[in-house]
Design brief:
The chain has 458 residues and is α/β, with parallel strands linked by helices. The protein is built from twelve helices and 13 strands. Helix 4 packs parallel to helix 8.
Length: 458
């Protein structure tokens, strides 16, 4: 049988009482603990108190570091930092939220998201996607602007407020996308590509009426996780290949994303992006008025200068009596002609004298040199006539001497001295008795002839 509690038996808590009970239970049962996690959504108040979220892959915990505890700490806190915190686990009663009141902080290393951020940043920077040389300037007076952001977020409202206030004639094309959560990065990249394609085909059916002059890509502020889709490589690649200049306007001034480094211009907020891109219409009008005033002043000065030159020309003697000017010019020309003839005549006389002197010197040198050459030839001829007989006598004596030597060495002279040459029947010269045998026929040559003989013994 069920038990029915009466009002006297029930214990009914107020919200404050229950929250205080939970707080007391947590503080008594858990108390001071060490906990490790990654910092997210970090903010520092003007009072010096720091509020942030400590999270891991499956849960998150609110944390507060009061200014008194923060003084003297050597570890600077920031989003994405992996830390070990020591403090009291408690409950913030006005919101009924349990939190860690931090007393001590130790660095635990770099968080997972920040590690991914730094790795992608290094990779894209090495490829040159952050180089200033590839950044393009924004147009001075854009007429058509594309915006990639959430259609319901604060960013589009801020941009439209600035545009409406500054230049309401600007034509805006919104590409609505999600700006956080799963799939947001893919939507942003696809929207950038789609706006580029539409701009390239502007004027055709079902496209834009005119090309886009610039793009604004961004969203309002948030935690590191909220802004993470702008740190994805797919968004960075889409920004890099955009043919339209892009302004990255993500988060607040202190927030930096990969999109900020790749885009042509980084704006600290969406409102600032609109201010960078769209000048105030009144400023342009004032600039035009100033240029018109300056142009008028320059034209007046130039007109005054030309009028003065015209008056001076009118007063000139040349225009009042042009024949006199021509006569003076003709007279001056005659004078110049006379001076030229005199100068040429005076210059020719010294040159002629120098030419005659040079000719005389040349003739003298030519005669003396010819005489010297002729004398040398005669001397050489006399020496040749004297030397020729002596040379002939010496050469004749040398010939006779050679003749005597040849005769003395010839075989006929040897035979005349009583020697003979004996050969076999086949013409071989006999130099030894071993070459002959009994019965051989021999031919012997002496000074006055040849006789034959037969070998009978040896």
């Amino acid at each position: 049988m069920p038990v029915i509690l009466t009002d006297d038996a029930r214990r009914i808590y107020t919200v404050a009482e229950l929250t205080r009970l939970v707080k007391q239970t947590i503080e008594d049962e858990v108390g001071r603990v060490w906990v490790e996690g990654e910092i997210s959504n970090f903010r520092r108040q003007a009072s010096g108190h720091c509020y942030f979220t400590l999270k891991d892959e499956r849960a998150q915990l609110s944390a507060v570091l009061f200014a008194g505890s923060a003084r003297g700490m050597s570890v600077p806190l920031a989003d994405g930092l992996l830390v070990r915190l020591y403090g009291d686990l408690s409950v913030y009663e006005p919101r009924g939220q349990y939190q860690l009141i931090v007393r001590q902080v130790e660095a635990g290393g770099q968080g997972m998201l920040m590690a991914r951020f730094e790795a992608l940043k290094r990779s894209l920077q090495a490829e040159g996607l952050f180089d200033e040389a590839r950044k393009r300037p924004l147009p001075l007076l854009p007429r058509h602007v594309g915006i990639v952001t959430s259609p319901t977020g604060a960013a589009i409202r801020d941009i439209l407020n600035v545009v409406t206030r500054r230049f309401p004639n600007l034509h805006i094309v919104l590409a609505p996308v999600r700006v956080q959560g799963a799939g947001a990065a893919e939507e942003i990249a696809a929207a950038i590509d789609r706006l580029n394609a539409l701009s390239a085909c502007a004027g055709a059916e079902e496209t834009l009426t005119a090309p886009l002059d610039a793009l604004i890509v961004g969203r309002g502020g948030g935690s590191l996780e909220d802004l993470w889709c702008f740190n994805e490589e797919i968004v960075a690649r889409a920004l890099a290949r955009s043919a339209i200049p892009v302004i990255s306007a993500v988060g607040h001034e202190i927030d930096f994303t990969i999109a900020d480094f790749v885009a042509d211009v980084r704006a600290p907020t969406p409102s600032a992006a609109a201010e960078l891109l769209v000048g105030r219409k009144e400023d342009f009008e004032e600039t035009l008025r100033n240029q018109v005033r300056t142009l008028r002043q320059v034209l007046r000065q130039r007109l005054t200068e030309l009028r003065g030159r015209l008056n001076t020309a009118r007063a000139s003697q040349v225009f009042r009596a042009p024949r006199h000017a021509a006569e003076r010019a003709a007279q001056a020309l005659d004078a110049l002609e006379l001076r030229l003839k005199q100068a040429l005549s005076g210059a020719a006389t010294p040159q002629r004298r120098r030419l005659e002197a040079a000719r005389a010197r040349l003739l003298l040198q030519r005669g003396s040199r010819l005489q010297a050459v002729a004398s040398r030839i005669e001397a050489l001829q006399r020496r040749l006539l004297r030397a020729a007989p002596e040379v002939l006598v010496r050469r004749r004596q040398q010939v006779l001497t050679c003749e005597r030597q040849l005769r003395a060495l010839s075989p006929a002279a040897v035979l005349e001295r009583g020697y003979s040459l004996t050969r076999t029947a086949d013409g071989r010269l006999v130099r030894s008795v071993r070459q002959v045998e009994a019965g051989m026929q021999l031919r012997t040559q002496v000074a006055d002839g040849i006789f034959e003989s037969e070998v009978r013994g040896k």
